[in-house]
Amino acid sequence: MNDLTQPLAAAQAETRKRWSLAELEALYALPFNDLMYQAQSVHRAHFDPNAVQLSTLLSIKTGGCSEDCGYCSQSARHDTGLEREKLLDVAEVVTTARAAKEAGATRFCMGAAWRGPKEKDLGAVTEMVREVKALGLETCVTLGMLKPGQAEQLKDAGLDYYNHNLDTASEFYGQVITTHTHADRLDTLAQVRDAGIHVCCGGIIGMGESRRVRAGLVLELANLDPQPESVPINMLVKVPGTPMAAVVEQSGDLDPFEFVRTIAVARITMPASHVRLSAGRQELGEGMQALCFLAGANSIFYGDKLLTTGNPDVSADNALFAKLGLNTEPVQGRRCAGH
């Protein structure tokens, strides 16, 4: 029997430094039950199997982005009907963060539709970080590509996490984005790490890519050193007017079981990371979400909106947690040594 059908020992998973594409493709190809068993075994070695961390995401500056990311409703290059809005006031952000905390979120993420922040805007964002942090929430921002010194300013403000997704495997990247490169993304991640900020980094699947590309995305994430503390896995939401929506209309929607397989492979290869169900949860439905939790997902974006796209409302999520016997995780959730 292929040794990939056996659960990895926790020590092996922790000390392993590099994965190969062949190994990830072999994981993807396992019988579904074998893959789920291995993923759940790895998950239990590192986390409470019935705990879920809740993050809320707020768009603090919507629309008008100069970049051409093919999936994004906020690109100025796509006709999605979304209006450009100015940066929110700090007080409005704090009010929303307070409500998120009262609803059970432990991390508050703030996203701005920029290629990267200008210095005049970064001052307002750092004030938001300080005020949200003062509420007792973990803080996260996603602001695009950073210039030298900006990560340090965010760290000084108390930022816990910076989100900057790889989006897709390097070989497929040019079919999704042309206004910046895969290397640009890695450069920002390096600046974040050097500043001592935790990394939140994942990607999007269901954009017409092959399984090999999906495996390549997880491979690149798993081989980051150190691995991201948070790994959001998004399923494409087909926003009318975006190029990727048109592509998927031709290629067909991703099979939901392939999404679950991706969650499982991410859990096996990144055993100490929080794997987050992100965009596309509303389309998955309760049954597929339950399989994702079984596959090792232990974090979600919580609240009725993800930047500009829909998300299950809080009451629906709480009802699902009750059905599955899942508990919400406090800010300092269980983590393995070294995190």
Description:
The protein is an alpha/beta fold. The chain contains twelve helices and twelve strands. The chain has helices spanning 10-15, 21-29, 32-46, 90-102, 119-134, 150-156, 182-194, 211-222, 243-251, 256-269, 281-294, 314-324, and strands spanning 51-61, 107-112, 138-142, 161-163, 198-200, 203-205, 230-235, 274-277, 299-301, 305-306, 309-310, 327-328. Strands 1, 2, 3, 4, 5, 6, 7, 8, 9 and 12 form a ten-stranded parallel sheet that branches. Strands 10-11 form a two-stranded antiparallel sheet. α2 (21-29) crosses α8, α3 (32-46) crosses α10 and α4 (90-102) runs parallel beside α5.
Layout of strands and helices, then pairs:
Elements: H1 10-15, H2 21-29, H3 32-46, E1 51-61, H4 90-102, E2 107-112, H5 119-134, E3 138-142, H6 150-156, E4 161-163, H7 182-194, E5 198-200, E6 203-205, H8 211-222, E7 230-235, H9 243-251, H10 256-269, E8 274-277, H11 281-294, E9 299-301, E10 305-306, E11 309-310, H12 314-324, E12 327-328
Parallel strand pairs: 1-2, 1-9, 1-12, 2-3, 3-4, 4-5, 6-7, 7-8, 8-9
Antiparallel strand pairs: 10-11
Helix pairs in contact: 2-8, 3-10, 4-5, 5-6, 8-10, 10-11
